Amino acid sequence: MKNTILIFILFLFSGFTAKAQNNFRNNNQNDNNDSKNSGIVISLGAAANYYYGEGNRNFGKYESARLNWQANGMLGLTIARDKSGHRTMLAGFGSFGMNDGETVNHIFDDQGYVTLSPNQNSNNNVYSIEGGLLIGEVFRISTGVGQQVFNKQTIASDNGIQFQATSLKYNSTTVGFNFNISAVAIILNCSFEYGQDYTKTVIVPSAGLMLHF
Q: In the chain, is it the N or the C terminus that has fewer CB atoms within a 10 Å radius of its CB?
């Protein structure tokens, strides 16, 4: 089911890409200039992500169960332009996705939690909100907070026991690159999740598409 969803998302956005490119070619020069002069940019898209976990523990390994999906959004305010017209933006970034049960179990293992729940939900919400910069419309650097949600359960760690726990909170820092093709961008990001309810830093790379409005 998860692979079917990912294939559907990629198919959907490939269609959007073709449509956006066709619309771009059909726009006149004045419309193009108006877009370039706009100070606010809104982008929406989707991506596949891979819960890599601790880099030193999982280096060189690949498990398909760690592959999940997410929706992404960005609201950017132009604060500078280079000579070629490329914008540097102060931006807010948001993501919302679903992690499968095996990924949640990997998170518990990596962070030193023991759960009394025999099974995890097949789909578990995960989201993050970050603020930062998109430099030259290419390089992203941002930081913020995130939360992994799961079904109600008792979890224990070196810090004690949490009864009826439903989520783990963490800090999130992301670096990435945008490769712009007309109104569409290919995005390659790498998020580092750490702190709050997390005792170890874990790595979550992602790749996908975003549409600019």
A: N
Calculate mean pLDDT across residues 73-81: 96
The span from the CA of 200 to the CA of 17, in Å, is 38
Q: What is the pTM of this model?
A: 0.81
CA distance 109 to 119: 14
Residue 138: C-alpha distances to residues 54, 88, 94, 133 (Å): 27, 9, 17, 10
pLDDT tens column, 130-178: 999 999 999 999 999 999 999 999 999 998 999 999 999 999 999 999 9
Whole-angstrom CA distances from 90 to 67, 76, 135 are 30, 6, 9
Tell me the three state secondary structure of residue 195: coil
Give Dmax over CA atoms of the chain in angstroms: 63
Architecture of domain 2-212: Beta Barrel (2.40)
* φ, ψ at 65 (rounded to 5°): -70, -15
Contacts of 201 (CB under 8 A, 6+ apart): 54, 192, 193, 194
